Backbone:
């Protein structure tokens, strides 16, 4: 295991331990649930939706934490939003949301928070269809889509990694699906839901348009 991978796992562990519900849970249960998270996000074939992706979302959660009204909910949603993921398979979000509910119940999370986390994860099925006044949900979704507004090299690496996850899908089918997704984003009045991320829209749109010319 590389030093970078070890560092990422340590950061993930620190975030897990920062959860109040984890601190109050039996140590064995806490360890088992964290091990499951790490194992799932490290599954073969996960080239983008992996522990690095998880760590990047937590970097954004850390940066914008003072804007969140319930960081516990956002952290839990981050941990579980892609815990079940098979590229190209339907139902990943539903399965992840159900796994989150199951794990949170074991941790003793209250029902209001369980319902919120479940809702947040289901909203990742189609970011463009979400209309909400819940600012925590807005930030969570923007954290997940922030990669679109990254620098050119990072964006190109993201595109390559997504394609690797869909390696079993013929190029013409992948390109058609990817083009549909990207063009849908460009039709939106705003790709992002929060003011801070909307300031990055121009860069995101430039990245998307450049990718479309390469499909």
Residues:
């Amino acid at each position: 295991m590389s030093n970078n991978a070890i560092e990422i796992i340590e950061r993930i562990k620190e975030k897990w331990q920062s959860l109040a519900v984890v601190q109050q849970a039996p140590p064995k249960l806490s360890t088992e649930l964290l091990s499951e998270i790490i194992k799932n996000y490290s599954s073969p074939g996960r080239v983008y939706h992996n522990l690095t992706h998880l760590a990047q979302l937590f970097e954004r959660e850390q940066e914008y934490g003072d804007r969140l009204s319930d960081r516990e909910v956002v952290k839990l949603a981050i941990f579980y939003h892609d815990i079940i993921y098979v590229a190209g398979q339907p139902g990943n979000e539903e399965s992840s949301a159900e796994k989150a509910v199951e794990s949170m119940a074991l941790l003793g999370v209250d029902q209001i928070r369980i319902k919120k986390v479940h809702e947040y994860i289901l909203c990742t099925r189609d970011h463009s269809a979400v209309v909400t006044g819940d600012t925590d949900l807005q930030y969570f979704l923007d954290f997940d889509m922030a990669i679109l507004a990254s620098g050119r090299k990072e964006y190109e690496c993201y595109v390559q990694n997504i394609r690797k996850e869909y390696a079993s899908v013929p190029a013409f089918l992948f390109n058609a699906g990817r083009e549909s997704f990207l063009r849908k984003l460009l039709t939106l009045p705003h790709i992002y839901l929060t003011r801070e991320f909307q300031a990055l829209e121009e860069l995101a749109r430039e990245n998307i348009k450049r990718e479309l010319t390469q499909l």
